[in-house]
């Protein structure tokens, strides 16, 4: 089935934000076996929107739209889509109830303009929005379908995964099964080089690499008549992949590294604390993004200044003087000091040079030491990462800390 | 002048890569005073490409294309653009010379298909490609213009900045001047409601609202004959906006709240430390994302457990027992304890319920207390935010902390 993706929003045409919705939806549609023929972006202009829908329907049977479902004057996607498929708007009571409840729960007055979010085309299949106020919907006529979703990526992806995907799966021919393999510690071109024997001349299953910030993903996908056949083919190839690059794999089911590590910590009942310098709280922020982590996470001491390292963690003044804040010696003393104050089973520390300033020939930007106390032993990993930029470097340091923990608690 | 951006490339339709070219070009065109009406992405399909060009020219006078200029069979942008503007291809000798030199320098044989990159529409203004092999060009007929550039972002942006931009500057009428106003503490629909008198029936300047996570932006833009006139019009409207919603504005020049606060701290030489619970390190992470912040940022104590609150900050056991970890009393004791250990000029604390679990009727998810010690006084702000999700709630708590500081150090 041929499809098109239509993004509605003037902020996209101004170049204020990057359109991540089309990337996500293109991948999803491809996985379902739909061909994506076009991406369009239009502003908040009803006439152009109507034009685009008509144009897309000339050779596509499915249009996915994002944006233009909100409460403001500019939000007109719903009305235009409705008209394009010869329908009329009616009050969708369940949506109105949800909307009223939502505002009541927050002790907020629902302004009049919000009400229109509860009106739907009369023939629409309505999709609840679990992450916002504007519901989405699917509308069909004479084999032409339009599915309208909210613009904010968080709302759109959740609605897509929970509601639209199951709906679309009933409309696709054949079944696709895929697994997203997550790796850390290997770059995309090296990954592709090592897996070339499997990638070259591939037909089904397909193997594709994707770079993420500081890490790499692998998608293994197969399209067969039944889900079982597709799964079998994918798992067989996964076995081959594991033989080649298994040491870098931390998840075969698209889990984030922080979730894998937190699940292990919680399962094994291991308490954890951290002592951070260059990461400035990002490591603790990552751990505490996981609901329920209070079961095991005790504290993070973000000792940004040398004074704080000495006061909070007992790092010795002589150590700082002799080796500097960014050194194996300091990383070890931070981890051991943390162990003394917190008593946590796992005490991890990090000290490094995030950049852009602060680097020298001896200690360049991207140099990081990660100390760890576990089961009575103190270890230290030294990393010299490539200096991409401050944000990327700090993120990579956090991933490295998670990797250190993941390998420590493996057994 | 109305313009459209057309991206050519099947890899975009597969969702393999994010289209950063359109973001860049949209910003550039807007700054030149051109209105961007559409973004299109098409695959390597000559018929659709021709269709899209014809469609765009219905109401646009300028089309920028990226992609499809390479040596392969699929690269047909040039030929299609040429046809659309009634021209024919000829050998462009300077381009052929450059191409031959390029291959010679690399000790590579130029394959036959590479030659076509040196053929150009006969009336074209040719743009050299300093970062790749495919030159770009501008072609015009009867007031309709098309500018074709390479797909790889690095090649495209370099060609644009060095060659296309000077070319376009001769073609733009009038100048756009705009300011991005950043606000915190007011929602998008309430903002629109309050500014309705200015938004309704607007012509020039224009006023548009954009939602960001936890905050709102306002774009005021004017297009006049000279930059001075446009600036005057924008600043006049900004004055009107400030009269209505000035209390929520933290920047009139598109700065992030964290950057505004950090700049103030560094300028005033005020040291700062934090004591975080529910934000779990996110506040410190935000501050330390700013290069040079070590001048003022001392430490953050992420006291996630009650034990840590008592040990690190001296929060009293009786206080926790009587009022709970999430209370004004605890927030105040965290801030005051932090002041004792760190001595920082500003000591800020936060304790709250990030969710999804942990809420009760009395203390629902989204309840947050922010304590602050400054100039000998301890203050506390209580917030009941709407419960969006854990991540959003934590981010909003961080923004609220920054807002507390921003208002404390205003004078």
UniProtKB/TrEMBL annotation, chains A, B:
Family: Belongs to the CinA family.
Gene3D superfamilies with a match to the protein in the record: 3.30.70.2860, CinA-like (3.90.950.20), MoaB/Mog-like domain (3.40.980.10)
Protein name, UniProt field: Putative competence-damage inducible protein
N-terminal signal peptide: none
Domain MoaB/Mog: 4-171
NCBIfam families listed in its UniProt record: cinA_nterm, molyb_syn, PncC_domain, PRK00549.1
Transmembrane segments: none
The species this protein was found in: Hominibacterium faecale
């Amino acid at each position: 089935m041929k499809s098109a993706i239509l993004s509605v929003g003037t902020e996209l045409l101004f170049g204020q934000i990057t359109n991540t919705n089309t990337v996500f939806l293109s991948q999803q549609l491809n996985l379902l076996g739909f061909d994506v023929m076009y991406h369009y972006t239009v502003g908040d202009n009803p006439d152009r929107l109507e034009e685009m829908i008509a144009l897309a329907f000339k050779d596509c049977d499915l249009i996915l739209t994002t944006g233009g479902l909100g409460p403001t004057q500019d939000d007109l996607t719903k009305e235009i889509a409705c008209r394009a498929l010869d329908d009329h708007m009616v009050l969708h009571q369940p949506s109105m109830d949800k909307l009223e409840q939502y505002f009541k729960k927050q002790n907020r007055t629902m302004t009049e303009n919000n009400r229109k979010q509860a009106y739907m085309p009369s023939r629409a299949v309505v999709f609840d929005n679990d992450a916002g106020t504007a519901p989405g919907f699917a509308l069909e006529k004479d084999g032409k379908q339009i599915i309208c979703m909210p613009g904010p990526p968080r709302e759109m992806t959740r609605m897509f995964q929970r509601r639209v995907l199951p709906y679309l799966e009933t409309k696709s021919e054949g079944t696709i099964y895929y697994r997203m393999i997550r790796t850390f510690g290997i770059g995309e071109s090296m990954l592709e080089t090592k897996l070339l024997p499997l990638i070259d001349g591939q037909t089904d299953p397909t193997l594709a690499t994707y770079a993420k910030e500081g890490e790499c993903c692998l998608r293994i996908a197969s399209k067969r008549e039944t889900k079982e056949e597709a799964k079998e083919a994918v798992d067989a190839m996964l076995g081959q992949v594991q033989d080649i690059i298994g040491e870098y794999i931390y998840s075969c089911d698209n889990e984030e590294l922080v979730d894998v590590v937190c699940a292990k910590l919680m399962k094994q009942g291991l308490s954890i604390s951290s002592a951070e310098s260059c990461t400035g709280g990002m490591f603790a922020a990552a751990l505490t993004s996981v609901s329920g982590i209070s079961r095991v996470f005790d504290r993070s001491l973000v000792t940004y200044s040398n004074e704080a390292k000495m006061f909070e963690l007992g790092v010795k003044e002589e150590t700082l003087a002799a080796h500097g804040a960014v050194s194996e010696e300091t990383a070890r003393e931070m981890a051991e000091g943390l162990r003394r104050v917190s008593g946590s089973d796992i005490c991890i520390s990090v000290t490094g040079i995030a950049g852009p300033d602060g680097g020298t020939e001896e200690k360049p930007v991207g140099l990081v030491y990660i100390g760890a106390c576990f089961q009575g032993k103190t270890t230290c990993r030294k990393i010299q990462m490539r200096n991409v930029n401050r944000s990327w470097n700090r993120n990579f340091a956090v991933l490295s800390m998670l990797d250190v923990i993941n390998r420590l608690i493996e057994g």
